[in-house]
Amino acid sequence: MRPELLKTVQAQLDEIRIPEACVTFWRVFSFDEKTGEIKMMVAQNNIIPYQGADVMARILAGDATWVPRAMFFEFENTAGVPTVPTPARDEGIDYFLTTLPLTPTKDYLRIPLVVSPSLSASSANYDGNQATFFAVSAGLTGIHGRTFDSSVNSKVYGVALAATPEVAQYTSDRLFSRSYLGFSPIPKEDGYQIGAQYLIRFM
Fold first, then answer.
1. Does the first or last residue of the chain, that is N or C, have fewer Cβ atoms within 10 Å of its Cβ?
2. 97 phi-psi bin (left φ>0, alpha ψ -120 to 50, beta other)
């Protein structure tokens, strides 16, 4: 993604204030590949799976390999409305590796973060208590081989943030955050990419 385009997208997101009471927050949006203009955006809360606690404990213990470095864009190729699951906290990476591929029209993109997570303060009480993660759709094929493209009516209906202790081996990933709540599926349109922003506050 071109640096100037990234700055345009991030500037638009920065103008949208996140309510002070929110502790975790997802934004998923479609934007023009040439201008960076955001066309459609949905916002929703998330769940942090039990696996997310394992990730946090390892980070606090000093193991930097467990820092979240990838997002998952879960999608379905359908002309209709995607069937959205009801996530449970006891579902970890096995959902993406073994349950998801059972549906032949579903898959997920495993996308490295576009930039390193940024730190900021949610109020004057803090120096840097919130971390923001950002990723943009990339590639034409999901982890399980399904096509991700406007030609097959791909729609993103879920997102996740994952730790990648072995970057080259997706089966070692561990979930930190996962979201579907209040999500209007976003179609992959020709000339547009899909982006996601995740924010977590420690208060």
1. C
2. alpha
Which helix (DSSP H) or strand (DSSP E) does residue 109 occupy?
Answer: strand 106-112
Give the mean pLDDT of 97-126: 92
Say what the pTM is: 0.90
Task: Please tell me the distance from the alpha carbon of residue 103 to that of residue 193, in angstroms, as a whole number.
Answer: 24
Read off the pLDDT band of 5 (50, 70, 90): low
| Sheet order of strands, 118-120 included | 38-44, 24-32, 192-201, 130-136, 118-120
30-39, 119-128, 187-196 — most confident range? 187-196
**pLDDT of 46-93, one tens digit each?**
889 999 999 999 999 999 999 999 999 999 999 999 999 988 999 999
Taking the C-alpha atoms of residue 100 and residue 119, their distance in angstroms, rounded to an integer, is 33
Query: Burial code of 23-36, b = ≥16 C-beta within 10 A, e = fewer?
Result: ebbbbbbbbbeeeb
Measure the CA–CA gap between 98 and 108, rounded to whole angstroms: 12
Q: Using alpha carbons, select from 116, 13, 114, 36 the residue that is nearest to residue 73.
A: 114
Map tokens 């420690």 to a residue.
Answer: 202
Indicate the SS3 state at residue 16.
coil
- 17 class by beta-carbon count within 10 Å (0-12 exposed, 13-18 middle, 19+ buried): exposed
Write out the two tokens for 88.
């449970």
In one letter, which amino acid is 119? L
